[in-house]
Structure formats: C-alpha cells, structure tokens
Amino acid sequence: MHVKEIDAFWRAANYLSVGQIYLLDNPLLKEPLRPEHVKPRLLGHWGTTPGLNFCFAHLNRVIVERGQDMIYIAGPGHGGPAAVAHAWLEGTYSEIYPDVAMNAEGMRRLFRQFSFPGGIPSHVAPETPGSIHEGGELGYALAHAYGAAFDNPDLVVACVVGDGEAETGPLAASWHSNKFIDPRRDGIVLPILHLNGYKIAGPTVLARIPEVELIKLFEGYGYRPHIVSGDDPAVMHETMIRTLDLVFEQIAEIKSGLAGARPPMIVLRTPKGWTGPREVDGKPVEGTWRSHQVPLSQVRDDAVHLAMLEDWMRSYRPDELFDAEGRPTVTVTEAAPRGTRRMSANPHANGGELLRPLTLPDFRAYAVQVKSPATESSEPTRVLGGFLRDVIAANPENFRLMGPDETASNRLSAVFEVTDRAWDAEILKTDEHLAPDGRVMEVLSEHLCQGWLEGYLLTGRHGLFNCYEAFIHIVDAMFNQHAKWLESAKNIPWRRPIASLNYLLSSHVWRQDHNGFSHQDPGFLDVVMNKKSSIVRVYLPPDANTLLSTADHCLRSRDYVNVVVAGKQPVLDLFSMREAIAHCARGAGILTWASTDGGEDPDVVLACAGDVPTLETLAAAAILREHLPDLRVRVVNVVDLMRLQPASEHPHGMSDAEFDTLFTSDKPIIFNFHGYPWLIHRLTYRRNGHGNIHVRGYKEEGTTTTPFDMAMLNDIDRFHLVMDVIDRVPHLMSRAAHLRQEMADERLRARIYTREHGDDPAFIRDWVWPY
Amino acid sequence: MHVKEIDAFWRAANYLSVGQIYLLDNPLLKEPLRPEHVKPRLLGHWGTTPGLNFCFAHLNRVIVERGQDMIYIAGPGHGGPAAVAHAWLEGTYSEIYPDVAMNAEGMRRLFRQFSFPGGIPSHVAPETPGSIHEGGELGYALAHAYGAAFDNPDLVVACVVGDGEAETGPLAASWHSNKFIDPRRDGIVLPILHLNGYKIAGPTVLARIPEVELIKLFEGYGYRPHIVSGDDPAVMHETMIRTLDLVFEQIAEIKSGLAGARPPMIVLRTPKGWTGPREVDGKPVEGTWRSHQVPLSQVRDDAVHLAMLEDWMRSYRPDELFDAEGRPTVTVTEAAPRGTRRMSANPHANGGELLRPLTLPDFRAYAVQVKSPATESSEPTRVLGGFLRDVIAANPENFRLMGPDETASNRLSAVFEVTDRAWDAEILKTDEHLAPDGRVMEVLSEHLCQGWLEGYLLTGRHGLFNCYEAFIHIVDAMFNQHAKWLESAKNIPWRRPIASLNYLLSSHVWRQDHNGFSHQDPGFLDVVMNKKSSIVRVYLPPDANTLLSTADHCLRSRDYVNVVVAGKQPVLDLFSMREAIAHCARGAGILTWASTDGGEDPDVVLACAGDVPTLETLAAAAILREHLPDLRVRVVNVVDLMRLQPASEHPHGMSDAEFDTLFTSDKPIIFNFHGYPWLIHRLTYRRNGHGNIHVRGYKEEGTTTTPFDMAMLNDIDRFHLVMDVIDRVPHLMSRAAHLRQEMADERLRARIYTREHGDDPAFIRDWVWPY
After folding, report:
1. Least CB-CB distance to A284: which of B201, B430, B754?
2. pTM, whole model, 2 decimals?
3. Residues 6+ apart with CB under 8 A from A379
4. How far apart are CA A61 and CA A5, in angstroms?
5. Pick from A173, A219, A513: which is nearest to B172 by CB?
6. pLDDT digits (tens, 9 = 90+) for A179-203
C-alpha cells in the first residue's frame, strides 16, 4: 500500500463524509447537484473529519505491512462521518447492516441515515462498527485506549486526541497512564494528538504554544513526540509514512524489552476542515473554527453554496474512487486490511465477542460464621478482600481492580497477598507491592480509574472500581456516558454483552471519621437511578456475608452498572451465608429475629437499607422490645434498592401485593436509609402505603466527629427512631410519653458525652453492641 | 527575618500541628506526657503538614521584606493542622475565636478542638482563617488560585499542590491556566509542587519520574521550574530563601512587562512526614506513606509510642518557641507579617469583605416586546446576551463570564461587542475576539471554568458559568464541594456573604440537534437538590423576558448556587416584561390566556416547567380548547422549581393552601417537566394532590433527530398530553375517544413524516406555532 492507495482511501473517506453531512440523494453525483438532493437541515461536524480519515488510511498501511493487530479510538468522536465512512469502505458496515450495501443505493442510504430522524447518531456511537468510544463528552479517549491495551500484549491502540479534548482535565491526566502499563504484558497505546487548531469557536491551547514547549511537554509526560505538520497532501502522506515507520520501529523496540524506552506519540498538525472550502462568503473557513460543523450552511437556498458543495465533493475525484455501481474501486480497497484486521471489524472493539467468563471461587468459602445474628462483627470489605484476592489469582489476564489509592484504605488489602499495584516508574527499596504487572490499578484520579476500566470492559474483560463514596461523583458524567453506551448497545444485535461496570463504594458517608463534611455525599445513587432501569442496579448489603453474595452476583452479570455500597468498619454479622444468599435473592426481607410481630400484622415497620442505618434500626428495635414488649414491630432490611420500585418501572421491582405484604399498606413505616432520604420517596411514591412512609437519611449535616454523633446529627440514630415510632403509631404516645422523653434525654446525654470524651472506645463499644 | 526566625516559626507550627493531632491536655509539655493527655481516637493527617508549614514560614519572609500582598492555598488541605497553626501563631485565630486565646489554655483548646466532636474539621475548611479552599476533594487548588489572581494585579497567590493531587485530571489541566492570565491586569500564581513522594498508600507519579522529565513537563506547561530538594532543615532553609528571592525577582520582571517571560514555579521535594518519627515498630515512617495520617498510633496504650510522641514534640524545642504562659516567643512572631499582610488575615481570603455589588443595567431595557402572548418568538439566551454585554461593560474588574468554548454556541455572542476571550498565547490574524484582558474565559474544561469561577467568587467578585446542560455533570463533585463550603460558611459569622455561583445551562436536553443522545442529560438538577435548601435555587424561565428577570435576580443574590436552565433556540414570547417580573416573583402561576377554567375550578391542570415542555403544554391546551371547548383547563407554569416544595423544606416553598389553590387538591395534574420526571414527585410527594400528579419528562430516550421527534420519543409532546388528559379526567373518555384516537394518529403521522422528510423547515414551523 503506497501513497496512491492511501490517498485514494483518504479521498474516498472524505467524499463519503461530506456526502453523509449533506446529501439525501444523487450520492455519486451522476447528475448535477440540485437543492432537493441536499438535506433540509445540516447537522454534523466536518472540521475534525479529514484528519480522522487521514490517520485511519495511514494506519491501514501499517496493519497490512506488519500484520499488526490494531484498533482505532477517535477522540474527536463528533467526527462520526469518518468512522462510518471507514466501516463502509472496509465492507464491515454492509456486513452488519445489509440494507446499506456497497453500491449506489447503499451509499444513498448511508448518506441519508446520517444525523437524520430514524437514522444514526452524528457521533461515533455504539452503532458504529469498530468503536469502543462514544464521541459525545470529551476527555476520555486516551484513558479508554489504555484500558483497551491492558492485558492485550499484541494490540496497538491508536488513539486520536483532539486539541480541544486535550484541554480537559481527564485527558491531561491520561498522558501519565504510561506509568501504569507493562510493555511485556500489555499492548501499546499510540496517541496521535491532532492539532487542527480550533475548538467550536476559538483556538486551542496546545496549538498556540511554541513548538519547543509542546515537545518538552510530551517528553515530560514520558513520550517520544514526532511532529507531522503541513497542509499539502502529497508532502503530508510522505511525512506520515516515514513517521509511522519510525514509530512502529520504536514500538518494536519497546516490545522487545529495551529498558527505559519511552513510547512514541505523534503530533499531527493540519488545517481544521482540511480539503474543505477555503473561503465562504468572503471569510476564511478551512484552517479556522468556521469549519467545525458545516462549512457551507445555506446550500438548499444559495446557488453559490450549492455549487461550492458540488465542486468540493468532485475535488475528491469520485470517478476514480467508486465504480459505476457505487462500489469502491480496487485502488481504494485492494491494499486495505482484510477480515478481523480491519479496524472496523476488530473483535477488540466489540469486546463481548472476546468475553471469557470469570473463573470465580465459591464465595461461600469466605463466609464469616454466624451462629446467631448480631452477636459478632466483621469488616465487610475486609472479608470481601479475601474473595477478590482469589478472583485475581484465578483470572490473571481477565480482571483488574481499580481505585484511587484507596484499596488499602477500603480494607481490600488481602489482594496484595497475590498481586501488586501496577507501576512502571521508579521503585524504591522501601516500597511495597509495586510491580509492572500488578493487577491493582491505583492512581489518584477517579477519572483514570473509570476510563481505564471502561476501556478494559469494552474490550471484553472484567473489573471492579473501589472508591470513596463521596468522590465517585467525580465520575458522574463518565458514568452517564457509559450508561448511555450500554442503553444503546442493548438494542444493537451485533454488539455482544460485556461484563458489568461494578462499583464498590466504601468509606461511606456515615464513617468519614478522618475527613468529615467534605467527604460526605451519598448522592451518586440519585445520579445512577436516572438511567434506564434495564441497566442500573444498586445494592446495600448490610453485613459481610450479604456483601459476598452481592459481589459474586455482580461479577457474573453482563451489561449492567452495579453499584454496591458497603462499609469498611466493623458491623454486626446478621446473616449466615445461607441466609445471606436467600436474603440477597429476595432483595428485601423481614429480620424475624429482630421483629416482634410474630409474623402477623405489625403495629409499625422499621425498614432499613445500608449498614449503619441497619445497625441503628436494630438497636431501636431492641429498645422497643425492652420497653414496649407488646408493640408488634417488624424489621425489614432492603439489600436491592430496585426492589422498592413498581414492577412496571424496574425488572427487580416488587408487585404491589408483595410490597404490601412486606411493608403493609396501612401501618407506619419508619425507613432508615443510607443516602438522601427523598430517594426512597422517589422509588415508592406509587405504593399504597406511601403516605405512611417516613424516611430518615443523610440530610447534609456533618463534620469530623464520632460515628454516633453523625447518626444523631442526621436523626438516623436509635433514639430518634424510637421517638419516631412513638410519634407515629396511633395511641402509642399516651403510654410511651415517658420512653419518648427518655430517648430525648439519651440523645442529649450522648451528645454531651461525645463532646466531653471524644470517642472513648468504651462508649463506641457501648453503642455498637445493642444485643 | 532570617533563618533563625523562619526555623522558629516552622518548628512552632510543627509543634502545634502535632499537638492538634494528639493532645487533649498538657499542651506545653510542662509535665511528662501521660496517656490521659492523649486523645482516645487519633484523627488527622501529619504527612503533608510539615511541608505546608515550611512553605508558609518562608513565604512570610517574602511578604515582610517585599511588602507583598499574598494569600496561601493549601492544596493538600487535609493538612488542616498546618493552617490552623499558622492562624494561631499570627494571632488571627484568637482574634476571631477569642476562646482560643494565645496562651496555654488557648493552646489546650486549640489542640482539643481539632478533629474532635463539637470542635473543628480535620481539613482546611471554611472555619479556617486565611483559606478559600476546602481541602476535601483533591484537584482544584490551582484553578482556585488562578481564579483568585484574576483582576487582582498586586496579589500573589501561593498555591501548594500535593503530588497526590497532581495526578488528578482537573489539576493536570490547571497548569495551562497561565495561558489565560494577563500579567498586567491580573495577579501572579506561584505554584509550589510539593513532592513528598506518596499518596495514602503508594508512591506518586511525579515523584518517580526522572528529574529531567519533571523539568521538561513544567517547561512544557509554560513555567520556569525551580527545584528545592532535601531533608536537612538548615540546608533546606538556605535553598528555599535563595529560590524564593530568585522567584520573586522573576515575578517582578513579569509584572514590569517583560515580554514572553514565563512564570516561575517551585518543586519542593521533602520527606513525607518530615521531622516526624523516622521509624516505628521497626518500619520506616518518615519519608514513606506510613506517615500519611498518624505516624504513631497506639499512643494511649503503648508506652513506647507515648515516649516517642513526647520526644518528637520536644524535638521542636517548645521552650524556645513559647513562653511560660504559652504565648509564642518574640523569635517566632517578631518578624512575621502584621495586620492584613498576615496570610491568615488577608481579606482576599474572606472575599465577602471585599465584595462590591455589581453595577447592573436595568434588565427591563432588554425586554422583547410582547403585544399578545405566544405570537412572536425569541431566542432567550441571545436576548440575555445583550444584558450580559452591558453587565460586563459596567463592571470591568468585577465580573467574568466562564464557559467551555460555548459562549457563541449558547448565543451569548453580544458580549463580544464589548470584550474578548481571555487569551495570553499566540494570536493569528484570522482570530477574532482574543485578548489578554478579555472578560470571557473559554477553555474546553468544565473543571477549569468552575474552579476559576469559584476562586473568583471566593475572593469577592462576581460571575456566571454558561455550559451545555448535559456536561455540567462533569463538575457535579465540584458543585458539591462548593455547596458544602457555602453551607458551612453560612454558620460562620466572620465569613462575609459572597456572590452566588450562577449557572446558565443551555443547549439543553430537548434541543441537542447536532449531537444527540450523549448530550442529553437534565440530571444536574437532581444533584443540586440534594444540597441544603438554604443555598440552592433552580429556575426554568420559559421565555426571554422571564430569563432576563431571573438573571437579574441571580446576579444580585449572595451565598447561593443559582441554576438557570434556558434554551437558545427560538421559543414563543409568553410574558411582557411586566408580566415576566410578576411571574418570576410568584415563581409559579396560571397562564390565564391559555386556560379555559375561567378562574374557577378546572377539570384538569396542565402544569409545565421549562421552555420546550411549556410550548408543548400550550399546544395541548390549544388542541383541547378547539376540540373540547367546554373542558375547563388550567395551565400553570413553574419558573422557580423550589416553589413546589413544602414551605417547611425550602424558604421558597408554597404553603399547602397556596399549592392547592394553584394546582387543586383533587383534579388531575399533568405536569410536563424539563428534566427527569421523578424530580417533580420528589418535590411534591407531601402535597394533598400528589396522588393526582402525572409527570412527563425526559426518560432517557433520544438520538440525533428533530426537536419534535425528541418530544414524542419521551411522550412530552402535545398529542400525548391531550391523550393523558383524556385518560385522566373522569368520564372524558366516553365523549373524547375519537379525539384520543386522532391524537394517536397524529403522533404516528408525525413520526412517519419526520422519518421521511427529516426536519423540513415548514414542518418545524407548523409544530412550533400552535397559536
């Protein structure tokens, strides 16, 4: 494949890109362009597209010449026409979507469907073959690329980074991912920074700093930068060929184990909207921000614009590129890769095809022994750590544990018995558990953890992201984008199911002992619940055994986002393993041993979700049992939050009959919740008994204080729950006024004691152990 | 101030820091340390603290010698003991909190209160004098620093960046802020990258790359890096003095206008937990991650640890630092800055003290003329642009407009009639509206926009952040942290009110014509509503005049986060300016001209919030008026979302009586909402009529399609609303079955037409203009 073929492929891709943005009909320009051939509304992004096409065409040469396994990530994914054009030229598109055949009619459909009602999105999207990266929100291309490269030693992930995207925080941090990659065991990421100079409306930072600074920046990031700069296609083809040959020699050096070799990256500097209209209505367009979307806008109404569009399209010499039937000519396709070497058909970009189920040890083997409920305690995440250790050991190339430097803090340290933190920078004698091939990815960037994991999952592997609960909000927007990917991919038959994105949120709102108010936010659950019920799952296991059962379930699931909130501090063991499995399977159930309703109609329901709220609920039930032994109290614990929704809203939802049986439809329900209280109302507002539900939860009160003080500050403590019961059970006040006063006094005493004695360990023990 | 004084201040601050983490009593070590002097639970972070103290002590010398106006941002703000120690040593702490006097008893209280119930947070927090930066979530220190420096030409903002924080995305992007600062008109940011080598449990990236790469990295970022590295205090003091002298000479050069001079930054490499215990229980601690929190843990129970703690504290030679009464000695304080030159008392760090109200033009002058409602249309944000243009012109050093390259896209371009985009990098001839002193800050990083604006507001200025609605989720976590700052600051009497943080969210979910599904997410409102009602406000003005009135209101407010969602596409003008003001003041009201209930009991209420849902609601009302003229329909528009909440939950909340008067307590309410539908349920679940509220909103259906197709995909379209009315008004079905079928047919026709004709402009006009 030489310049001639590369250039032909490039021109063909450019032609198809312009056609997608503009044309409804007359795809091959067999007749002069008329207004009715043009879409009534022009939606799409031209500016980045010729650069994406240029890189793709040149990388194809490398694939063919070296037999290289390669995938392509288009950071400027709003250049959707480019990726679609590549897939069509390579034949993949027609294989997947037979309606869009490789002929004139297929080309007409290809053009028409783009950014058109009932058609395809304007961005690189799940619908686009060869992509693992939706080009909507910017910032994550390079993190996705590294995620894809992990544990794929023979793969090269070419990643075009737009200079707009390069201004984002997540992207700026992603360059340092090269310190977390093992040249022996992982693939290579080849970043191509595409400096086309402009964002939507202004210049970009990296395009406007002196080149000497630009080079230093990337050397500082630990790369060997290569500059490819210009606007004359003939010269640029030669330069790019030379550069890629050098780059792949350097890659070969690294793969051969050359110590200290820095990975190459390319800076590609071309005009924005390259090969498009130079000037429109007297204003420069090519090489400026004006070519970001549609360089010619009034094409239907303006004969001059229409003529310019036709000239522009004919400038690619379509007659050389497509035969009379609209098929790409031999020049365009002969030298291109075949089969799964085509980047549009590489199975890594449809990771479900490569997915191997995890080899999971029997989680029951890690159970804590529970002779009777609520007598001993465990640290749930520490128990889980043992299970994860063996998951890692059993799946050495198929599972990674991500976290922003919190694996030990979240008490998952058992994993370090079998593996290390991935680290490919300097290691000192005093260091512990650092190695290039470590399975634990720790970087103080939630963005990188999330982006790496997404890239890893989308290419068919498995993982878990452990994070402080409050700071998972840092990736709210990334979660949204991944959730949208899953929502869309579910409806695309050729996208095979991938492993779920599993979050373990620990160091949660109720136990921020070292950190206080800034670390208290359980609101990620609210963000998660906005996405489609077909993909989101939320679990709040209250003890170690329910956490084990939940984790096993999540690691086996596909195409979901599973959010598991679990504490790292000691909590009471409530369920034997057998009971835990049953409880998790039900998702919500009565704790009979803590209830006094004898299985019959209760006077009041104490519901709870989350470990600390459950502890306080159990303590409140104990107080009630002691002081009001004839009050029929039912304690209900909810593990699977989605069970609360109506069955019509979520596949896990209970029927109204089930809900009423569990919670009653007419009795007061005091619901002690881990998160912001209104989430429970949102989930239950259609239930018969909703008017009787009173929810306690985090109401944004907190500081650095004791755990029990935190509970009291937010009224989720046992004493307040007892007061709530007395206030809400009809006629109870008359005979329990004294108890109510006693509870109020206890709260006051506890607050004063706390303020005087800090958290005296004896005091802590006293309130943790109600049984 | 020479080495002796600097060292004394440093030792005193270190002593006070250790005391805060460990001691309940015996603050001056006048007697041997006993277990009961030590806190029962040790919470805090030692590791970063001596470095923070070192920088502070050295910067004080510069302040005194040069009369420099300077503030200090502690990126590793979990080193709270440091900032508190500085403020106490400088006298500020006792001035603000007289209980914590500058004597032995005051020192005892200082120690006891730290990280103690009823005391102060363990981080640098709003409670800490001299800070504008809560040290909770990492990543924002440098963006805050730049925000503080804007329009403060004489100020130096010293910003310590931890090497953990440096791994985050927002921080990595923040280094490039130097391209957005005007050396003439803005102050100088002096970044001090503190490489102490470790995060919580592992090494940091920047501490483990070769020094040559480190230097290139910062030269690439456009700085002049200076390395200060070592662990011998005597040598380090000399090096730091020499370096700071050089650095401030370079700063003087820049301020004197030397073209192309790059700003200096310092790399400070010291051991983590410097001057703390070298080794504990046979393991190295100083200089390792083990000193991150408390280097000695079992101090109450372990006599060896207790003795080590006493040795450690005595190593600072407290007798030289504090007199018999516990006051700092002359050596410590004599040479330190005085008055408002003290960094702990600099008014820039309590911005409300410097706040000047905006000079606001009369927003009524920008009104669009509305002769009768819903006959003409305007682009609301374009109208707002005229107002903002004049706000900028009238407040040349007191207001900035932030946005990720979307100011023009969001149709606020009128601002460029009076100002430019801030840009201090290369400018080409073809560029438009770039200048070093531009008031519009555009960078493709929502994190930077938010961080800069926070820093600007916290130092007493005003601003507005305009952003695509979906991508504001990128700063969810930053919003959370700023909201928590405001929540805390409200309760701190000496913190003066600051200008509100104003968001303008445009290019919203319903009009993502160019971009589709990835750009559709109205869920920021759900995140916002989780914060305390005392600080959050959400507005959905449905037309241009209500947007003007809302914007004026928000720009005058203090200590809030105001979220305004407004469209940039043409929408019907509904309110004259006078009506708009009244409607916004009420926050929600009946559109009598669109209603057919004659001011009496309606049969059904059509409620709406947001521009597109309002348009569809009005169209539905028109259809009903035509086809069912005797049906009494009331149309209610909600501008101020908080009005829906009970008065007990939010200060804007309506009483139940008001709510019932507006919405009825017994009639069907079809609520057409801009965002995810359950938010309306969450706000109204306690209302009498809640059981009758049926909410339509965005339910995560979308792609690149026409605006009306988007409405149909999510069932918020006029036809579906009419169907909802027929389904819900008792007995209506019997006589309106035909209309219902007609509506269903219309939907089908519209969908087919859309798919065939894309968005034919005539079709668009047809559905946009129901009147």
Report:
1. B430
2. 0.97
3. A411, A544, A567, A568, A569, A570, A571
4. 9
5. A173
6. 999 989 999 999 999 999 999 889 9
CA distance A459 to A352: 7
Instruction: Evaluate whether B184 touches B430 at the Cβ level (below 8 Å).
Output: no
Best probe of the B interface among A142, A424, A700, A760, by most B CBs < 10 A, is: A700
Name the residue among A263, A64, A88, A89 with its Cα closest to residue A159: A263
- Residues A733-770 have pLDDT tens digits of 999 999 999 999 999 988 888 888 776 655 555 555 54
Domain with CATH 3.40.50.970 in chain A: 3-350, 374-571
Closest CA to B41 of B366, B388, B294: B294
Q: Cβ of A117 and B755 within 8 Å?
A: yes
Length of chain B, in residues:
771
- Asked if A470 and A514 touch (Cβ cutoff 8 Å), the reply is no
d(CA B609, CA B332): 61
Is A445's CB within 8 Å of B515's CB? Answer: no
Task: Inspect the interface and report whether the beta carbons of B137 and A474 lie closer than 8 Å.
Answer: yes
**pLDDT tens profile A648-700:** 999 999 999 999 999 999 999 999 999 999 999 999 999 999 999 999 999 99
Structure tokens at A552: 């096993």
Q: How far is CA B54 from the centre of its chain?
A: 29
Element (H, E) at B72: strand B69-74
In chain A, what is the straight-line distance between the N-terminal and C-terminal CA atoms, in Å? 77
Q: Token pair of A756, please?
A: 């005087």
Just give the CATH number of A589-768. Answer: 3.40.50.920
Mutation choice for A interface testing from B286, B413, B445, B535 by most A CBs within 10 A: B445
Interval B352-385: pLDDT, tens: 999 999 999 999 999 999 999 988 999 999 999 9
CA distance A402 to chain B (A): 14
Nearest CB partner across the interface for B519, out of A136, A427, A513: A136
For range B290-299, the mean pLDDT: 93
Measured CA to CA in angstroms, residue A157 lies from A70, A150, A455, B183 at distances of 6, 10, 11, 41
Q: For residue A240, what pLDDT is reported?
A: 98
Sign of CA dihedral A155, A237, A337, A51: positive
Do A213 and B204 count as a contact with CB atoms less than 8 A apart?
no
CA distances for A703 relative to A304, A338, A513, B56, B530, angstroms: 67, 61, 9, 26, 17
DSSP state of A221: T
pLDDT < 50 positions in chain A: 770-771
**CA of B469 vs chain A CAs: smallest distance (Å):** 11
Question: The CATH number of B363-571 is which of 3.40.50.620, 3.40.50.300, 3.40.50.970, 3.40.50.2000?
Answer: 3.40.50.970
Q: Which residues pair with B333 in a beta bridge?
A: none
For residue A253, what are its two tokens?
A: 């050096």
Assess whether pLDDT exceeds 60 at residue B295: yes
8 Å CB contact between A659 and A652: no
Domain A374-571 belongs to what architecture? 3-Layer(aba) Sandwich (3.40)
B213 contacts in A (CB within 8 Å)?
Answer: 219-222
State the CATH architecture for B3-7+10-345.
3-Layer(aba) Sandwich (3.40)
Helix (H, G, I), strand (E, B) or coil at B287: coil
What are φ and ψ of residue B746, in 5° steps? -60, -45
Percent helix / strand / coil, chain B, rounded to 5: 45, 15, 40
| pLDDT for residue B560 is more than 50 | yes
The segment(s) of chain B belonging to CATH 3.40.50.970 are 3-7+10-345, 363-571
Across the interface, do B681 and A682 touch by the CB < 8 Å criterion? yes
Pairs of CB atoms within 8 A across A/B? 382
Angle ∠(B404,B133,B215) on CA atoms, nearest 5: 70
